[in-house]
């Protein structure tokens, strides 16, 4: 168990990893397991509602799910002008999955870590001080980068699908600086390619770092509030939790909207 504030903070910010030595191929098991559980939860609820949908007497859950689907579908159609059967479901998945990940930050900061310590000590004889579990996947830079890199792959795929591999390659070498003179175009090709690579790399970076920064800071504030006396925890924790509901929703919405904007730019002529 943590003996002081520093140990308490370090313990709550340490991942449950697949290897104690660390390294590039080390997997954060808590991030992976919680993300996977939330993915199944999201898919299971939507599939259940879709199978049991009723036009005559829709339930509250059905109406709630329909409102989310309608909201996301409207935003996707307004941003992505081209025809695609993939964009709206992709936007819905991004918004709901990231929202659920962010919402884990609203759980009491000691609830899941203490449960993990009890399970580890009771069933596996582990030292509670060395049992870690971070419950907010979007506060893990590895998770946010994985999602943003997935969006980048979609951007490349949409570009090739809309323009062809040759058209996409031509755009990499001829935009943003166009030249009618063949010699000048050849000279500008490396510059254009460098600008295109910077633009392509900036998109996943902006998506990953924005989401990670907001959720990590929110998680850290909850941990710092938990170190205060019990009365102050309620005085500061409740208002921050209410405000944080707006943050977790807004960050999921921003990630979704930026992804749709990037995909829309990918299929448009430069």
Walk me through what this model shows:
This protein has one domain (5-267). The longest helix is centred in the C-terminal third of the chain and has 45 residues, at 182-226. The chain is globular. The protein has 270 residues and is mainly alpha-helical. It contains eight helices and no strands.
Whole-number mean pLDDT: 92
Computed over alpha carbons, the radius of gyration is 23 Å
Q: In terms of structural class, how would the helical and strand content be classed?
A: mainly alpha
Number of helices: 8
Considering DSSP H and I runs of 4 or more, what fraction of the residues is helical? over 70%
Q: Whole-Å distance between the termini?
A: 57 Å
Shape: globular
What key attributes describe this structure?
single chain, mainly alpha, 74% helix, globular
Summarize the topology.
Layout: H1 5-12, H2 29-51, H3 60-79, H4 87-103, H5 111-124, H6 141-174, H7 182-226, H8 230-267
Helix pairs in contact: 2-4, 3-4, 4-8, 6-7, 6-8, 7-8
Provide a quick synopsis of the model.
With 270 residues, this protein is mainly alpha-helical. It has helices at residues 5-12, 29-51, 60-79, 87-103, 111-124, 141-174, 182-226, 230-267. The chain crosses the membrane at residues 32-50, 86-103, 115-133, 145-162, 182-202, 214-236, 242-265.
């Amino acid at each position: 168990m943590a003996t002081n504030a520093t140990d308490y903070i370090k313990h709550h910010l340490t991942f449950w990893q697949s290897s104690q030595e660390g390294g590039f191929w080390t997997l954060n098991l808590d991030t992976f397991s919680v993300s996977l559980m939330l993915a199944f939860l999201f898919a299971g609820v939507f599939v259940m509602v879709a199978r049991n949908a009723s036009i005559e007497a829709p339930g509250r859950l059905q109406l709630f799910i329909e409102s989310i689907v309608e909201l996301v579908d409207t935003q996707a159609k307004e941003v992505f002008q081209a025809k695609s059967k993939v964009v709206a479901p992709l936007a819905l998945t991004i918004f709901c999955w990231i929202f659920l990940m962010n919402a884990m930050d609203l759980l009491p900061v000691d609830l899941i870590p203490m449960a993990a310590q009890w399970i580890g000590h009771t069933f596996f004889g582990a030292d509670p001080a060395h049992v870690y579990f971070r419950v907010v996947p979007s506060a893990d830079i590895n998770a946010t980068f994985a999602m943003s890199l997935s969006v980048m792959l979609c951007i490349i795929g949409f570009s090739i699908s809309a323009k062809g591999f040759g058209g996409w390659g031509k755009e990499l070498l001829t935009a943003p600086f166009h030249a009618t003179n063949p010699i000048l175009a050849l000279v500008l090709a490396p510059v254009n390619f460098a600008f295109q690579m910077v633009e392509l790399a900036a998109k996943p970076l902006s998506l990953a770092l924005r989401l990670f920064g907001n959720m990590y800071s929110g998680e850290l504030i909850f941990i710092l509030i938990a170190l205060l006396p019990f009365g102050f925890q309620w005085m500061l924790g409740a208002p921050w939790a209410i405000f944080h509901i707006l943050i977790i929703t807004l960050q999921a919405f921003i990630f979704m909207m930026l992804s749709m904007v990037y995909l829309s730019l990918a299929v448009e002529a430069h």
